[in-house]
Amino acid sequence: MRREVVWVVDDELMAYHAVERVANSLGMRAEHVADGLDLFDRLEHHLPDVILVDAALRGIDGFALVERLATHPAWKHIPVMLMLTASDVETRRRALRAGVRDLVRLPLDLGVLEAKLLAVRSGVAPIIEAASATPIPLSATELPRRASALAPDEAIVALERALRARQDMAAITVHDLGNPLATIMLAADLLSGDTLSPEAKRRVQLLQGAAQRIESILDTLGRFSRLDTGALLPEHEDGDPLDVVRDCIEAQQFTADTKQVQLVLHAPESPLRVRFDPGMLRRVIDNLLALALKRAPRNSSVILRVTAHTPPFVRITLLDFGGELAAELRDQLAAGTAPAAGEQLASEVGLALAFASMAADTLGGTFTLDDEAPNGATFRLDLPMPQSAVRPARGALARAS
To answer: What is the CATH number of the domain that holds 326?
Structure first.
């Protein structure tokens, strides 16, 4: 069976290695092309199945290169994707006017790249097709499909309108879910003031903890729905991250007791007064604790350690005894792609690690996994937390470290 060939036009090798990894997993073959001149020389002898072009090429830039490909009678049928870091409307318009079939954001999201290469293989058109480009044929023997009737400017406006509608729908959903959630939280607070048995009080506390977790999730979803820059921005405030850690442990305590797993916290005795994003930190710790409790066998422990250091950063280490994680997840995390593609992302383990990795990057920190510990895994989150305008207790950070 013939292997589809992917050419990567890039004067550096970083993007090529990422494409090569995804292409190999799909049974395709990736080849590196150094620049535009090298590309045109190769095209005189061979035609690839798809070309990925870096917009920031030295010499002939990616836009000019794509425009030449799109207007050449022997090459215009080849699907071309432009790799670029900018996401503003004007850059996308320029790309579409040049004849780009599809855009790929840098740094590459391997899951998105995999989907786009599969679309090329199956003959599925991208979301937007430039009117000047010939659509992807299903095979060499089949007739090409009709190009999009929309001109490039009209297509980009249509896409922006669809994205705004999706953004508005997400915001409305968050708002509407907040109303019944507020009722649940109020009812739980009222119940907590009643004379209840210890077991009933515990159940009310479980309900309150679950409601707070849903509130945190809705807060994160609401922030995603308001994205304008293509990146999730942190929302810092003064506070003590130890309070967030203790709240997360309390919320998961019922699950731990049910599984007969001991939650152990090692934390500085002195309070920490720093600037951080409480909502994002809560989501990360919640995800990691839930993952650790799912993995932990009965009558074992999950150990959470918080240490503060100077210059101000906080290290949060979580150790469980649930056996080794899948080697693929470990490798993806070590490669900085954890986990961005394939079936692993659909699993709870993959989702928890993917969110922790994304959040750490958003907050300017790092997230690592070490599963060489005996019968378990260690998750380590290092986050910069500058001291707040309010001075901490004298020597608190020094004693904590």
So the answer is: 3.30.565.10
- CATH number, residue 103: 3.40.50.2300
Element (H, E) at 10: none
What's the structural domain count of the chain?
3
Same domain, 261 and 396: yes
Give backbone dihedrals phi and psi of 183, rounded to 5 degrees, phi first.
-65, -40
Q: Is the pLDDT of residue 337 over 50?
A: no
Do 227 and 354 sit in the same domain of this protein? no
Size (the chain), residues: 401
Residue 147: what residue type? A
DSSP state of 151: -
What is the tens place of the pLDDT at every residue in 297-336? Answer: 888 899 999 998 877 889 999 988 877 665 555 555 555 5
Identify whether the C-beta of residue 100 lies closer than 8 Å to the C-beta of residue 160: no
* CB 218 within 8 Å of CB 178: yes
Q: Classify each residue of 145-180 as buried b or exposed e, where b means 16 or more C-beta atoms within 10 Å of its C-beta.
A: eeebebebeebbeebeeeeeeeeeebeeebeebeee
Whether 289 and 369 map to the same domain: the answer is yes
